[in-house]
Amino acid sequence: VLDTARRIATPEGIELALRLAGPLPRALAWVVDFLLRLAVLGLAAMVLGALGAFGTGLFLLAWFFLEWLFPAWCEVNWGGATPGKKALNLVVLHDDGTPVRWPAALARNLLRAIDFLPLLYGIGLAAMLMNREFKRLGDLAAGTIVVYTEPKPRGFSIPQAPPLAPPVALTLPEQRAILDFAERAPGLTAERAEELASIPRGLVGQLDGRAAADRLLRIANFLVGRR
Amino acid sequence: MRQAIFESRYGADWARFETWLDRHEKLRKRERARLAPDALPDAEVPQAYRRVCQHLALAHDRQYSPDLVDRLNRLALRGHHLLYGARGGRGARALAFLLAGFPRLVREERRCVIAAAVLFFGPFLLLLAALQWFPDFVYYLFPPEALAKFQEMYNPANKRLGMREADDNVAMFGFYIWNNVKIGFQTFASGIAFGLGSVFYLVSNGLLIGAIAGYLTQVGYGETFWPFVSGHSPMELVAIVISGAAGLRLGGALVAPGLRSRKAALVAAATPAVRLMYGAAGMFLLAAFIEAFWSPLTYFPPVTKFLVGAILWLVVGGYFLFGGRGGAA
Fold this sequence. Notes:
Chain A is mainly α. Chain A has eleven helices and four strands; from the N terminus they run E-E-H-H-H-E-H-H-H-H-E-H-H-H-H. Chain B is built from 13 helices and no strands.
């Protein structure tokens, strides 16, 4: 299956699901970080510029720290994300799903110097496209992945209908499929919804068209716990 | 067990665990102390986490509703991050690294360090010597304006050395950090190109520094140049060599991965390489400090400066040769 989900087994014997982030959200996160850095340094230049040579020294120090160490610091101490990554709901983790620590954070941030070459992360992008976990060179060396943070449980927003217990026990993926269908049904054309609804014969029996769609909707209502 | 019973029986446990997570993700230690004590004492957290994991597995297996499974998956993930995340004692470990770990690591990686030292000091000494016999060679390396600038910086008539008259100590400190540490980081990072980048930076910096030293000595400014560099050179030159060694370590893992795949070898090499860079960055910092605040002083006679320089070389040498030997620190 072509999928960006990555499953990680924990010592407790369960599997946690993580969704890998691709080049586009990561590039956007970089743009946000870049603009923030530009703004902060611009402000610093104005304030410190008034201090003459002393200010120049402080400005260069600030530049150095913002450029090289601040991203790593954020990833270690600020929930695994720079401000840009926070804005795009991304987080850096070790390959085994644990939060990133200093050695890995520093490795991936120092190696940005190479990933950035020859121009705007050319090498980084090439590396990301050549492995299935979207790792740039820094991620490869540091053993880190960039994933989406778990979205807040959204609850299922499905249309109200009198709940109906399914005639057979459903597995988890089947339940999810029914719920996804119910959620999207209002956005589909009636014909398409009815066509889809008549596929699971085990649930809708001989019903067809409109009746089948309604039946699935009622089952979905049962599945989300409406009684 | 039906889902409703399952939820009503364990819901309170999950809620307690979730409250604990909320509190520990958001707040720092000091802020937590001011709040009422947790309903869930820290000591019982691992147990609560394992229960959540068990419940997640059960919910999966019993095909409970996706809503519940998602909720438990979220709880388990957050618990996993907190429990397997930060470890305490960072300050103590940093001190141990400084006192023993770093010199040990440098000795352990001596093959890379020696190779980097040869790549850097070889060209350095070569040019330093060459310019004494063939002074005109310098015009192949630098344009006349650059040479004029070097002359201005090290003119014996200056009150402070190594900088133009108008410069300020703090400004130079900022510049040395921004510039020198950046060069160190580039020397390291470019090593991932099968070591070639590190070789390039080591050799080119060796040539550059050797050429400047050779030129200034040859035109008779040695009496200002050598006292200036004697203080910070032990830190700075060794830091460049160690950065290069860290880069060669990365590149070496790709060139000769041994029994591992290239990717696995790279990941394995990254740990010692980055630890070398911790040390190198610290040395660059120290060097920049000395270079900005001690090296330019002309108040002390050159003899004092050479003495300090010699002592620092001995300290650096002794540190790497003997630091962290004996005693299981």
